[in-house]
Write a structure and sequence with these properties.
Strand order of the largest sheet: 2-10-9-4-5-6
Structural class: mainly beta
Largest sheet: 6 strands, mixed
Number of strands: 10
Shape: globular
Radius of gyration: 13 Å
Number of helices: 0
Order of helices and strands: EEEEEEEEEE
Strand content: over 45%
Distance between the termini: 36 Å
Oligomer: single chain
């Protein structure tokens, strides 16, 4: 299974960040897969954002839950991250990953006007 993130590299503060993870080599609806989004600001630790299970159930970090949505498109074998009202503190490298499995290479997102 391989994962690849895509999306804009620059987002303005207060706008919406949307990222897509395209999965190949396996179906996102295969039983017990759990697809996650994680971010890492430069020089800091990893932060789990949230995830979506093979059956479509979602879970979020409590600190981000109010402005985060994760969804999927099984026909495209993709899952997406949408984060509203972003701030410069959201500047980070964003990764998609299968829990316990492979990660994408990550995509750098800068929040700046």
């Amino acid at each position: 299974v391989r994962l690849q993130e895509s999306g804009p590299g620059l987002v303005k503060p207060s706008q919406t960040l949307s990222l897509t993870c395209t999965v190949s080599g396996g179906s996102i609806t295969t039983r017990y897969y759990y697809w996650t989004w994680i971010r890492q600001p430069l020089g800091k630790g990893l932060e789990w954002i949230g995830g979506i299970t093979w059956s479509g159930d979602t879970r979020y970090s409590p600190s981000l839950k109010s402005r985060t949505a994760i969804s999927r498109d099984a026909s495209k074998n993709q899952f997406t991250l949408q984060m509203n009202f972003v701030t410069p503190e959201g500047t980070a490298r964003y990764y998609c990953a299968e829990r316990g499995g492979p990660w994408g290479q990550g995509t750098q997102v800068t929040i700046s006007s």
